[in-house]
Amino acid sequence: MLKEDLATCIDLRHQLHRHPELSWQETWTKANLLHFLKEKTNVFEIVDRGHYFYAFYQGASDPEASAIAFRADFDALPIEDKIAADYVSQIPGKGHKCGHDGHAATLCGLALEINRLKPERNVVLLFQPAEEVGEGAKACLDIFAECKIDSFYAYHNYPGQPFQTVALNKGTLALTSKGLNLYFKGKPSHAMRPEDGINPSYAMAKLVSALENIQTDHSLFKGMIRLTIVHVAVGEKAFGISAGQGVLRLTIRALYDEDLQHLEDLVVAQAQSLSKQYQLEFSWDSQEYFPATVNHSEAVDKIWQVCQGQGQAIKELEEPFRASEDFAYFLQKVPGAMFFMGDGEDYAPLHTEGFDFPDGLIEPVVEVFYGLIQA
Fold first, then answer.
1. Binding site, residues?
2. CATH architecture, domain defined by 3-173+292-374
3. Which CATH number fits domain 176-289: 3.40.50.300, 1.10.357.10, 3.30.70.360, 3.30.43.10?
4. Percent of the chain with pLDDT strictly greater than 90
5. Which long-range contacts (CB under 8 A, 24 or more apart) does 88-94 make?
6. Which residues are noted in the entry as Mn(2+)-binding (predicted)?
7. I want to staple 95 with a disulfide (CB 3.0 to 4.6 A). Which of 81, 106, 141, 331 is the partner?
8. pTM for the structure as a whole
9. Selection from 151, 143, 140 nearest residue 66 by Cα
């Protein structure tokens, strides 16, 4: 990248960081990304589709030829930003705590390179909302009917991996997951006579113990699974009332889709059994489902070849990323891959108040992406 282009992208990243917006609310973010591309480039057809947009570049090849595509997400999280920087979030309770500001700025950097170097291939740059809730990619799937995409790539910054090092693997890169809400309804009563009511606390306590047993019984599953209790609520803050209802919220994740379904079935069956035993009404629902992100072998091979040709540090992941990524939906449509770029081995974790995307990742990722266009 030209030094001035990199500086421009870093400034853009800082602007985005100051104005974080949650999933499906990214109006300022989207408008400013659109403005950046329209002001800084002149070789793209920019197509606005409401919540998302894409920039199409027609190379010197046949206009009907297929295109290589790249994705950046741009939503933030409901987490306070407590970084020591002049571009700290201006929105209380919201922050770019996953680095999507950096992903979007990187894709804009790739746009500047394409605008300057004008490659032969057709290229699609997709700017996507709502990755954090697992819905944004699904809302963008019309892009396949509008563009002849034959391969799709993306990246994510990754604390804990060596700085400026590409990390990836063939097959499952990120786990499949979903959120489960388990609802228990009993009968409230005066706290002096709990026997007159039906308090769900005891059934829920036994369920929590049973969940630990499920998670530690590796014979039940084909591969890695994880079950995390994220929220428990029973009754009200009133010492005179014995609780009459409660909710338990879990995140479940797995290496394989069939294991995720089996884990869900086991959890729900245990909750139903305990509810019946304690004469509780039980219901449940799920949300924020992410399929497994499965990299295609040939796409991973191309990333390795590009990195080796550029002298870019690259390594194979020892195990899949435990978090989930809705980029999975694109890889179900066409060959492609996602890779990680290391933030540093002692860097602040994702989804924490002190996290801030490292600006030093923008240039090496742009170089890898551009290398893929030419591969």
1. 98, 100, 132, 156, 351
2. 3-Layer(aba) Sandwich (3.40)
3. 3.30.70.360
4. 98
5. 88/17, 88/18, 89/17, 89/18, 89/19, 89/20, 90/18, 90/19, 91/19, 91/20, 91/21, 94/20, 94/21, 94/22
6. 98, 100, 132, 156, 351
7. 81
8. 0.91
9. 151
Phi/psi of residue 73, each to 5°? -95, 160
Which residues contribute to the annotated binding site for Mn(2+)? 98, 100, 132, 156, 351
* The pair of three-digit structure tokens given for residue 21, joined into one six-digit string: 């917006």
Q: What is the mean pLDDT of residues 250-264?
A: 96
